[in-house]
Amino acid sequence: MLHVQASLRALGPVPGGAATVVEALLEALGERGTLVAYTATPENSATSRIHRAATAGLSPAEVDDYHARMPRFDPAATPCSPTMGVLSEAIRTHPDALRSRHPQTSWAAVGPQARTITEHHPLTSHLGPESPLGRLYDLDARVLMLGVPMDRFTAFHLADQRMPDVPQREYRCVGTDGWITFKAPDLDDLHFGGLGAEVLASADGVTTAHIGTAECRLVPVREAVDLAERILRRTRA
Predict the structure, then answer these.
(1) What burial class does residue 69 get, using C-beta atoms within 10 Å of its C-beta: 0-12 exposed, 13-18 middle, 19+ buried?
(2) Band (11; pLDDT cuts 50, 70, 90)
(3) What is the pLDDT of residues 154-196, one digit of tens each?
(4) Strands 178-185, 98-99: parallel, antiparallel or unpaired by DSSP?
(5) Which of 37, 87, 90, 152 has its CA 20 to 30 A from that of 98?
(6) Given strand 142-146, what is the order of strands in its sheet?
(7) Digit-coded pLDDT (tens) for 121-133
């Protein structure tokens, strides 16, 4: 099972673009392999960094107008955020892809384990152990960081949520039937760069290579998350 986080710009020109890369990954995985992508939609959120940047300096009336124009999340049709990269969108739109229904932090998967990964995604575990990300840990998946640095290693959120007294916050986004409000762990990734460097320094199972012009790493989810947890506990002791 492979979760891919990719920068096709770092990879360099590929005939056929993202669709070619998806088919190549599926071929390499074979019939028993499952390809997974994070297909989040922070653009439909009133509590995301993207929203805060877009509404900074607006008047209350302008904010209300902005909210009225925000797209509703439809798991079958809503594109993933451009911040996720074109490869995530190519996986989402694959004819055999399934997608989780979380209105903020959805995931898509293609392959025999796709339903297992995507069918259960509670609001309160947006990137937690009950989410598709948690299933990747349970199923001993690998993450292909294709031209993407470790400061964007999404699975580190699992380690964060193993810390004591994880703060909760309110999230608000536009779902299929209108506005949805829920409470879930308060997550951030600003510390992932330093955490990633420490994990790479001590991990045994990471494989590195170049594909095209991209520096790539194949990272075991369990090892990386468990190491990150130990590092976080040590630094916060």
Answers:
(1) exposed
(2) confident
(3) 999 999 999 998 999 999 999 988 999 999 999 899 999 999 9
(4) unpaired
(5) 152
(6) 98-99, 107-110, 35-38, 2-6, 142-146, 214-220, 207-211
(7) 999 999 999 999 9
The whole-number average pLDDT for the span 203-229 is: 95
- Residues above pLDDT 70, as percent of the chain: 100
With contact defined as beta carbons under 8 Å apart, do 5 and 146 qualify?
A: yes
- Token duo for residue 160: 């964060």
Does an H or E element contain 176, and which?
Answer: none
Retrieve residue 112's tokens: 């025999």
Residue pair 80/94 in contact (Cβ under 8 Å)? The answer is no
Measured from the Cβ of residue 226, the count of other Cβ atoms closer than 10 Å reads: 17
Amino acid letter, residue 21: V
Helix (H, G, I), strand (E, B) or coil at 211: strand
199: which 2 tokens? 């994990």
On whether the pTM is more than 0.90, the answer is yes
Alpha-helical runs (H) found in the chain: 8-11, 17-29, 49-55, 60-69, 86-92, 114-118, 132-138, 156-160, 192-202, 221-236
Asked if 103 contacts 122 with a C-beta cutoff of 8 angstroms, the reply is: no
Question: What percentage of the chain reaches a pLDDT higher than 90?
Answer: 90
Cite the beta strand spans of 154-220 per DSSP E: 168-175, 178-185, 207-211, 214-220
Contact (CB, 8 A) for 10 and 213: yes
Given a contact cutoff of 8 angstroms between Cβ atoms, the answer to whether 153 and 232 are in contact is no
